[in-house]
Amino acid sequence: MSNLHPAIQRVTDRVIERSRASRAAYLALMREEGDRHRDRNVALPCSNLAHGFAAAGEDKASIATMRGPNIGIITAYNDTISSHQPYAAYPPQMKIWAREVGATCQVAGATPAMCDGVTQGTDGMELSLFSRDVIALSTAVSLSHAMYDSVAHLGMCDKIVPGLLMGGLRFGWLPQLFISAGAMPTGIANKEKQRIRQLYAEGKATRAELLESESRSYHSPGVCTFYGTANSNLMMLEMMGLQMPGAAYINPGTPLRQALVRASTQRLAEIGRDGGDYRPLAECVDERSVVNAVVGLLATGGSTNHALHIPAFARAAGVLIDWDDMAELSRAVPLLVRAYPNGAKDVNQFQNAGGLGFVVRELLDAGLLHRDIMTTFGDDLGAFAQEPWLDDETLAWRDPGPSGDEEVLRPHSAPFQPEGGMVLVQGNLGRGCFKTSAVDPSRWTVEAPCRVFHTQKAVADAFAAGELERDVVVVVRFQGPRANGMPELHKLTPVLGVLQDRGFNVALVTDGRMSGASGKVPAAIHVSPEALGGGPLARLRDGDIVRLSAEDGTLGTTADLSLREDAPTPPSESGTGRELFAMFRHGADEAEKGGTAMLAMAGL
């Protein structure tokens, strides 16, 4: 691409060079596996094959004789998660739409799908990050049946898309496509939801009032409307070309959503090995598409969780990318989107203003994305610089035009800020991520005495007791992958937000995660190395002066940590199944590599 920005090219070249051996090994394995599984009538003995289509009904003969491609469905359906509830209806519909083009569909298997919104602040949250590894393993188990010519992934939320990618990439000779169910319609204004949460944290609103507010926000099927990890997942899939263009946020239950699911199913029949347009996932996910995912994350102010997820799924494809790469990209990529919690508008308003088609078009025009990648649809990523619509009931795509609302979406020539939404901070306390897109620039630097905690509850108790009524850097440690599974610390946001609103300079430093909905309080998160096992956070003491600055990229203390011993490690907690995840905690690698046990233990 002739107009590619030099920083994008420089980072891509570095990732390619760093990944040379691992990527070559991955592609060699995919070619070998693809050849071995080319013909299921050869790969599977008759008894095995008969087991595989015994319940296929009218599709049995087609599957037995390989009359057409057989699409395997990996579903994350459950009806506890609002975003995944619509998936109940998808497989029966997809089977009908597959038959229209001479193909078949089978549900290959299901993955667990937990909702971080349900488990926030509870013991179950300590299973959240490692659920990504479980989802990847479940995907591998499902695809091990070797019955399929392509794969449809039904999943959208936090750990689910990265887990599906990690598992699916180990079967990368198969074409694979993600199918969104879309965003729920807009509920109450996000600022109102935030206001009630802070009132509750101050004891000025009742639980009944808080529940009523939350129920008016999370009110129907579909992805939550704030721009957190789930919606960042869907953005990332667009930037990599792994779903139908513009399919991310179209509301459930609409004719356009149904048309997109139908087109997705039939597209999977076209891009198989024998369809004349073979597009295996292993070739769609390469160094360039991974860089595109990071660029999209930065340009839209997306979830910090992807500082873990992108390195993790990239490793599954033999691609090695790190936070230095992300930081350099952030300095080159402007912020084009301010969707809540980075602004007042939600993803429906973002979509109505032009959505991801607008963002892709602007980034391509500015030379900030690789156009020439293999995608699931179209000649290149240019096909994703469009928005879907129904032209007399026929699915079509068109240019999104100018931004319909520059409070949420701007062109690259007039961005919200000239750099992306994430900064690498580092120093004698380690390396961490600072999400700048949600924080007022006047608060990008905080230097204050610290107060050290080991739990969210302890922070809340100290707040209630009036012990944090001052300039303070709140340190919450022993929250990394090896300590307790790296839970999100979302319940800290209202408490710290109240302190900030009272005029104090407040910051958070933690080796844990913050939600994709983390907002206005400056924070260094994912601090690595984590406190457990010798990370410097383990040697901080109350009152040490800590400096956190996104302006100069520093995270440090004036205290001499070399003379101190590590604080005692809190005991491992049992209950809610946490004891069953001990092997994941013991095997996990550092946050910058993705905080994954599965890939670390596999030597990837």
Describe what you observe in this structure.
- The chain is of the alpha/beta class.
- The chain folds into three domains: 9-38 and 69-183 and 227-398, no CATH class; 186-219, no CATH class; 422-570, Glucose Oxidase, domain 1 (3-Layer(bba) Sandwich), CATH 3.50.30.
- 38% of the residues lie in helices and 13% in strands.
- The chain is built from 24 helices and 14 strands.
- The chain has helices at 6-18, 20-36, 40-43, 46-53, 60-65, 90-99, 116-119, 128-143, 160-169, 190-201, 207-217, 229-240, 255-270, 281-284, 287-300, 306-316, 323-332, 347-353, 355-365, 456-464, 481-484, 492-501, 582-587, 597-601; strands at 70-75, 104-110, 150-154, 176-178, 387-391, 394-398, 422-427, 430-435, 445-453, 472-476, 506-510, 523-528, 545-549, 554-557.
- The strands form three sheets. The chain has an eight-stranded mixed sheet. A four-stranded parallel sheet has the order 2-1-3-4, sandwiched between helices. A two-stranded antiparallel ribbon has the order 5-6.
- A hairpin with a 4-residue loop joins β13 (545-549) and β14 (554-557).
- α6 crosses α13 and α10 packs across α22.
- It is globular.
- The two termini are 31 Å apart.
- The relative contact order is 0.11.
- The mean pLDDT is 94.
- One of its GO terms (molecular function) is phosphogluconate dehydratase activity.
- Residues 407-594 form the Dihydroxy-acid/6-phosphogluconate dehydratase C-terminal domain.
- InterPro entries: 6-phosphgluc_deHydtase (IPR004786), Dihydro-acid_dehy_C (IPR042096), DiOHA_6PGluconate_deHydtase_CS (IPR020558), ILV_EDD_C (IPR056740), ILV_EDD_N (IPR000581), IlvD/EDD_N (IPR037237).
